[in-house]
Amino acid sequence: MSATETDKSPQADDSGMAATDPRKRRRVLLIVGALFVLAAVAWFLLWLLVFSRRVKTDNAYVGGNQVAISAQVPGTVVAILADDTQRVEAGQVLVKLDSTDAEVRLQQARSALAQAVRGVRQQTSSASGADAQLAASRISLKKAEADLQRHLPLLAARAESPEVVQHLRDGVEQARAAVATAEAQARAAHAAIEGTDVAKNPAVMQARANFRAAWVAAQRNAIYAPVSGYVAQRSVQLGNSVQPGQQLMTVVPLHDLWVEANFKESQLRHLRIGQSATIESDVYGGDAEFHGKVVGLGAGTGSVFSLLPAQNATGNWIKVVQRVPVRISLDNAELDKHPLRIGLSTTVTVDITNDEGRVLAAAPANRPVAQTTVYDRMASKADAEAEQVIRANLPDDTH
Predict the structure, then answer these.
(1) What rounded mean pLDDT belongs to the chain?
(2) Which residues pair with 291 in a beta bridge?
């Protein structure tokens, strides 16, 4: 190989590499640009199809009813039958108070009811006696009038003395007065019992109401659970002297729970009642997902209902993004599988694809938010006891 050829070879290689580098750079830039474009398109599609159709917050907590158990009558605690974390059923006795005084008052009311029934029976007998006396008075009047009529012709024929006839006339007047007195006494006797039977007599009904009140007061020395749930915050102790309204413990039903999701005001635009929601609880992580619906939006922001609301009219005002509580219902079947406790943290995602619903409830609720029949059963038992006392003091032929 000649020297000339040897000198030209490196120059040719340098020019080829110089020509290749711009092409590689352009190719790399095109690839990188394409990747950015694809990422932007993917992000846009993700936002359009997913993120724009949901709102999400982790400022959400499980809520539920906290039923305060308190005394309804004063007394001294003699037994505590439920403790923190224990399950209780509606109607179960939780606390017992000393019932000595209440039992005495109940016996007094029982005796008063029995006496009222017997008193009405006595009034009924008196009314019957008054009726009999009235009938006898009317018979006496008819006899006196008949005697007078027989002697008047004799007086006209001068066969009877005027004194005898006058005496008969006086007898008729006395008989008429006796009839008037008997009628008044009969009316007075019937006024107390007329129009009702013994059980419906006002005196018996008043005594029955007093007995019912005493019976219920005696039963209230046993403090019942109005709902089924779990005991929390027990503060009552044996020997405590409690007063009506004093809280002794709390029962928390872990069914019919909800989630209070505090969304930013900028997230409320498309939130509507009835939209579906998914909830993840921190206690289960991704192992359990709950499903619910939006049942209502709060009437104000959390700061408005705080203990010390912010005074935004002051000169030190700083704008803070406000949050509004949104209530999300939970499925009881899912709660049975994965129980939750009130106050637990959750993450809520609401599907806002359909935002045609209402923001505010259109009509009042047509069923109770919560209801118990425990105290109704107590009242029905009181009525049954009163009826038994009344029947026991009626004649055998009226049972």
Answers:
(1) 83
(2) 278
Residue range 211-226, pLDDT digits in tens:
999 998 999 999 999 9
The pLDDT confidence band at residue 347, using thresholds 50, 70 and 90, is very high
- Whole-angstrom Cα distance, residue 48 to residue 51? 6
Q: pLDDT for 36-51, tens place per residue? A: 888 887 776 666 555 5
Contact 226, 90 (CB under 8 A): yes
For β-strands 54-63 and 323-329, DSSP reports them as unpaired
Neighbours of 251 (CB within 10 A): 24
Q: Note the pTM of the prediction, 2 decimals.
A: 0.70
Task: Look at the chain and count its residues.
Answer: 399
Cα(251)–Cα(362) distance, rounded to whole angstroms? 32
Q: 79 in helix, strand or coil?
A: strand
Beta-carbon count within 10 A of 106 CB: 20
| Contacts of 213 by beta carbon, 8 Å cutoff, 6+ apart | 109
Our measurement of the distance from residue 367's CA atom to the centroid of its chain's CA atoms, rounded to an integer in Å, reads 10
Burial 351-383 (b: 16+ CB within 10 A, else e): ebeeeeeeeeeeeeeeeeeeebeeeeebeeebe
